[in-house]
Amino acid sequence: MREKSIDVTAAEDFGNAVIGVRTGTEIEIEARLESLHDGILVSGSVDTEATGECVRCLIEVRIPVEVEFQELFAYSFDEAFDYTVQDDHVDLEPVVRDAVVLSLPFQPVCQEDCLGLCPICGVRLLDNPGHEHDAPVDPRWAALAGLEGLTEASTPHVDVAEASPHADAEEEKR
Ligand SMILES: [Zn+2]
Ligand SMILES: [Zn+2]
């Protein structure tokens, strides 16, 4: 059994669409290698940092990533195992990458109660407590509001008698 501490930097970005470990980020790996009958069992932990955007307010978020992994590297090709020892080496990169990517959130938020952005002007609501606008005016209603004065002024006041010529006509027929 052997134990190894490995410090590397990410050679390329890896993650999902919204968050990931960026190129150049330090990755600390503690690995324990055990020789078994079929191969080498590698178990360990990964410690690094992922960078992305809050899905609600779009500011940058950095989250610590601490994940564990365990994989058996077969001495010779074996369908039962995904990895094989090659030239006396085990390639931990894909194992570490998978463990990290699977641990990342699909909906990272800057904080659990992030309020997102104002739907009207787009400011970040957490930075602007008490932020509000006058009641939004739908342009169609705005047009009607302009007509309101006109309608009142131009509606003539009518007498009930004058307003019912139909009733008079009925009267004359009799
Ligand atoms: Zn946020
Ligand atoms: Zn606003």
From TrEMBL:
<protein>
    <submittedName>
        <fullName>DUF177 domain-containing protein</fullName>
    </submittedName>
</protein>
<dbReference type="InterPro" id="IPR003772">
    <property type="entry name" value="YceD"/>
</dbReference>
<feature type="compositionally biased region" description="Basic and acidic residues">
    <location>
        <begin position="165"/>
        <end position="174"/>
    </location>
</feature>
<feature type="region of interest" description="Disordered">
    <location>
        <begin position="155"/>
        <end position="174"/>
    </location>
</feature>
<dbReference type="Pfam" id="PF02620">
    <property type="entry name" value="YceD"/>
</dbReference>
